[in-house]
Amino acid sequence: MGVLKMKAYKLEQKEKFLIINRCFFDAEHGWQSLTLERLKYLHKEFPNDPQIDYAEALIRQDFLGEGIKAEELFIRAQNHAIIKDKSNENYLFSTFNAVKFSRNEDEFRRHYKIAYSIAPDDSDILVFNQILDALNKGVSFQEILMSKVIQLQNNYMYGESACFADIALNSGDYCITDEISLRKIRINALRELDKAAEASRAVRGESYPPEERLALIYALKELELALNLDPNDHMLWNYKSAWLCLMEKYNEAIECAEKSIELCPYNYFRPRTNKALCLYKLDKKNEAKLEVKKILEDENILNIEFNDDRALTLKIQHDLNSENINDATQLSILSEDILNGIYFTTRQAINQYKFPRNGEEIFEELNNRIMVVGQKWNMTYIEIMEEMLIYFCPELVCLTVMKLNKSNKLAYEHCQNSLLFLAAYKDGIIQRDSCRCILYMILWYKELDIVRKIYRETILGFTAVGPDKFILLENNMRSEIKKFNHNLLNLIADQPPLNQEELDFARSITLSRFKSGSSDSQKNSDSFLKNFINKLLLRKP
Questions:
Q1: Per the structure, how many domains does the chain have?
Q2: Most buried in the list 282, 348, 424, 486, measured by CB within 10 Å?
Q3: Local structure of residue 73 (DSSP, 8 states)
Q4: Is the pLDDT of residue 518 over 50?
Q5: CB neighbourhood size of 475 (10 A)
Q6: What's the angle, vertex CA 426, arms to CA 425 and CA 429, rounded to 5?
Q7: What 3-state class would DSSP assign to 53?
Q8: Does a structural domain hold residue 283?
């Protein structure tokens, strides 16, 4: 089959900025792991690029609280700059951030000299001068760092607070009291970053798989170091219990909850609710009910200071006593949440790109390209879909392609089949976004029987009869579905193998839609959306 040969898409410099913009969009929506994957892709396409270095530094600062890594990237951006004066904003900002994120006095003085030499009148120089005055008066750099950490935390600037705590903890030795204080600030700041990502995903009916909770993973590592310093802190043990529960390590979470209860057996309910929740998650419902009963029988739970604990306990009790809803209802509810999330995310993307006609421009460009390609299947359809996924989030791509289902059914099928190809043959971010797009299209129909039938014919069908890497399609889809919302696996993906009649249908009907063809349009080497991107980049804000 001709589909096995595909042109590799090479980014141009002017397209780099759109993808950097998309990295920030992903990070703001709780997709930090995806953001880092996309940054790797950019680094590969544009090695030693200072703008990508700087963008990654900001993302690690604001969304992951990685102070040391951010400092290294600011310095890299500074070193990779070709124009090294204040006319180059990227160089200017990298230089000043290198001063700001210095981890010791020598680094600070060295970076300060460079910053002062290129922009002595910059307002930040006044702040740096105050630090220099303090250093010259004998204040230690560690004291200055610790003061900065506390200030940022009090102002709820959690990304920078976690960053500066990271830098402070790597600046030298502290007394145990100060070190514990710094680590607790960093722990709490990282958890706040994790909460923000979790909330953003929840709005779209999306789970937060443990392996992608990067800020929480960092928080747990910090927590271990804090517990090594103070193993009798019952609140730290409770945090560990709660966060291990979020990481789906329920047995370990129960052990930590019990340790917290042992250290503080009275008037501290949160580890007890954590234990009940973990037992529920482990499907040990009778034990969970017993824990809930004990909590609610404790007369102190009625005190106003324990309102949150009582509410959480009652929520667990409600879940324990609720009957499971049937699969059809569950899928309908999930699909509605996810589809609402698609519209919401698409509106945000459109606002970020400042499309004047609500993204209708993309649909028009897609239609124009299809007119050039023609109605007969050929490889250009795959190139079109790959380029769209490079530029735009899968939610926006899904809504754009779904419009074709009404106006050009055959082109819609070609685009859908192209996404199936990319989901099977590609890896990394393109595979992920293709799988997401396909999942959204399948869930579009909401009804359980229809959704399962579509999944069966497309995913199981192509996996069973498709060539070469199509054998990977089902596994790739299952992996992404599990990350997105593991409840969907049981609802739509867990199905028996195809029977002979279904296999014959897949060979004669499903696969026939994906046959290689030829078209004069393949001679057209113009990149999809290239003119549109040029207009977008030239548009005044």
A1: 1
A2: 424
A3: H
A4: no
A5: 11
A6: 155
A7: helix
A8: no
| Helices vs strands, H then E, count in the chain | 28, 0
Amino acid letter, residue 323: E
**Each residue's pLDDT tens digit, 366-378:** 999 898 888 888 8
248-270: burial string, b at 16+ Cβ within 10 Å, e else: ebbeebbbbbbbbbebbeeebbb
Q: Which domain holds residue 516?
A: 331-538
Whole-number Å distance between alpha carbons of 460 and 456: 5
- 455 near 294, Cβ under 8 Å? no
pLDDT on residue 391:
86
CB 187 within 8 A of CB 215: no
- Amino acid, single-letter form, for residue 447: E
- CA distances 181 to 102, 172, 215, 223, 490, Å, are 21, 15, 19, 12, 45
Confidence of residue 220 (pLDDT cuts 50, 70, 90): very high
- Which has the closest alpha carbon to 199: 427, 25, 30, 3? 30
| DSSP class per residue in 435-454 | HHHHHHHHHTT--HHHHHHH
* HSE-up of residue 501 (Cα within 13 Å, Cβ side): 0
314 found inside a domain: no
pLDDT value of position 338: 93
Residue type, 477: M
* Identity of the amino acid at 198: E
The pLDDT of residue 519 is 37
Instruction: Calculate the average pLDDT of the chain.
Output: 89
Backbone angles phi, psi at 46, to 5 degrees: -130, 80
pLDDT at 26 over 90: yes
C-alpha span between 102 and 170 (Å, rounded): 11
In degrees, to the nearest 5, what angle opens at C-alpha 324 toward C-alphas 318 and 328? 135
* Contact call for residues 4 and 467 (beta carbons, < 8 A): yes
Residue 87 in contact with residue 119, Cβ under 8 Å?
A: no
How far apart are the C-alpha atoms of 333 and 487, rounded to whole Å? 12
Mean pLDDT of 410-419: 92
CA angle 13/4/528 to nearest 5° reads 35
- Judge whether 430 lies within some domain: yes
Contact 205, 137 (CB under 8 A): no
292 φ, ψ to 5°?
-60, -45
Residue 56 located in a structural domain? no
What angle in degrees, to the nearest 10, is found between the helix axes of 176-203 and 214-229? 160
